[in-house]
Amino acid sequence: MIGQEHTINLGYLPLLDAAPLLLAQELGFFSEAGLKVRLSREASWANIRDKLCAGTLQGAQLLVPMLISINLGLNRVKTALTSSFVLNQNGNSFTVSIALSEQLRLVNPEAMASAHTSVLTMKRLIQKRRERGEAAFTFAVVYPYSCHNYLLRYWLAAGGIHPDHDVNLVVIPPSQMVAQLQSGRIDGFCAGEPWGQLAASMGSGHTLLSTWDIWHNAPEKVLAVHQDWAAQHPDTYSALLKVLLKACRWLAETSNREDALLLLAQPQCLGTEADFLHWGLLAGKHNFHQHSANYPWPAHMAWLAAQMLRWSHLVPAQLSGGFLNDIFPAGIFRTICVQEGLAVPPEAAPTLVGYHAAPWQCGDVSLGADRFIDGIRFDSSGISEYLQQFPISNLPGT
After folding, report:
1. Tens of pLDDT along 170-187?
2. Which residues of 16-41 are buried (b: 16+ CB within 10 A; e: fewer)?
3. Which of 318, 347, 376 finishes a domain?
4. Among 213, 248, 281, which residue terminates a domain?
5. Is-contact 187 138, C-beta < 8 A?
6. Do 307 and 203 sit in the same domain of this protein?
7. Residue in 203, 196, 207 with CA at minimum distance from that of residue 276
8. What is the pLDDT of residue 319?
């Protein structure tokens, strides 16, 4: 039964894509649904991982690949999680130091013209530095098993740069990125907002590209909960997802965006100036609801799993037995869509990704563009064949 009999503890990081959770709290959507939710602001993804595994959180805003890594215990800590709700698509950017941006322009004055041009220029710059005996660039991501890591790797490899041989990739919590860039300890970072805009506003960084430029409408964060909690409290879990869907729909209304900025900038939410959130929310590519963004698309999870295989973060045997569908089930979300009178994607979800440069129709729903920077298409029914297309990987024989 839904009610105030217990508190649901949910973790989050102070990032713009935590907006659905924060706004559901600030706008009173949780309490209106009879839910007592406590949001726990955390310092890093490792903090969230550890608290989930310790059981002090029933759920959390989570990086999509973390759903795989925590279920498999890839960080030596393991717990059974499930997710049936995507909080947002897109939203990350790759910010480089002013010094690196100037070096890129010296190699090619048009280096910033596109994500494709920038990575090819980066390749030339890396070669020149190697010839001069200079150190490799160091780029930071927020977590080893993150869309940030896998999309940055994809971009680098698309330009002929091996992410494990030609550059140094390190892990830094999002809140420390700007300071590390300013100090010169890193040459660039891939993180969610507001950190890229903060670096730019302080004159210490230049946004080279957004992850939208690498994969249009990539899933970014999900709401993950313990599998046993969801099984023991099915009505509460359903109510929780309905509230988040309501918050995402509210946020998708353009007329609500300015109010959202003011709410999110408050100290108890993101605690930053609204101006730093403006680009991400109003001019960026954050997608909180349009084009069925909240739907847990199996093919999206399969693509991320394929990248984990590509870089030897997984082995195929770990994905056997319908593992991905078990941790990323769509059934509960489909039921909620029917209850809310929303169009439902076809039950046999498409296995193809990367075929569309513009919005397209899938049954009764409109879906967003899903192209990759290199134009390579993905079919989740043939992951092994897909991976053989890449000359740069950590697969055996490459």
Report:
1. 999 999 999 999 999 999
2. bbbbbbbbbbbbebbeebebebebee
3. 347
4. 213
5. yes
6. no
7. 196
8. 92
pLDDT at 283 (0 to 100): 62
Residues 15, 196: Cα–Cα separation, whole Å: 11
* CATH code of the domain covering residue 165: 3.40.190.10
Tokens found for residue 269? 């939410």
Q: Are residues 82 and 198 in the same domain?
A: no
pLDDT digits (tens, 9 = 90+) for 301-323: 999 999 999 999 999 999 988 89
Residues 6+ apart with CB under 8 A from 369: 216, 217, 356, 357, 358, 359, 360
* Rounded distance between C-alpha atoms, residue 86 and residue 369, angstroms: 17
Q: Are residues 86 and 222 in the same domain?
A: yes
301 in Cβ contact with 64 (< 8 Å) = yes
For 169, the token pair is 């990739």
Same domain, 337 and 262: yes
Cα separation, 382 vs 384, in Å, equals 6
DSSP E strands in the chain: the ranges are 7-12, 36-41, 59-63, 81-89, 92-97, 138-141, 168-171, 188-192, 205-210, 219-226, 352-353, 360-362, 365-367, 378-379
Residue 1: pLDDT above 60? no
Q: What is the mean pLDDT of residues 251-257?
A: 91
Q: How confident is the model at residue 5 (pLDDT cuts 50, 70, 90)?
A: low
Same domain, 116 and 59: no
* Domain hosting residue 129, numbered range: 92-213
Structural domain count of the chain: 2
* Residue 6: closest CA among 34, 36, 33: 36
Q: Which amino acid, one-letter code, is at 221?
A: K
Output the CA angle 333-339-344, nearest 5 degrees: 55
Same domain, 97 and 86: no
Which residues, including other chains, have CB under 8 Å from residue 234's CB and lie 6 or more apart?
none
Please indicate, yes or no, whether residues 109 and 34 belong to a single structural domain of this protein. no
Decide if 378 contacts 354 (C-beta within 8 A). yes
Q: pLDDT tens, 331-374?
A: 999 999 999 999 988 877 788 999 999 999 988 899 999 999 99
* Average confidence score pLDDT of the chain: 94
Name every residue whose Cβ is closer than 8 Å to that of residue 312 and which is 6 or more positions away in sequence.
394, 395
pTM here?
A: 0.96
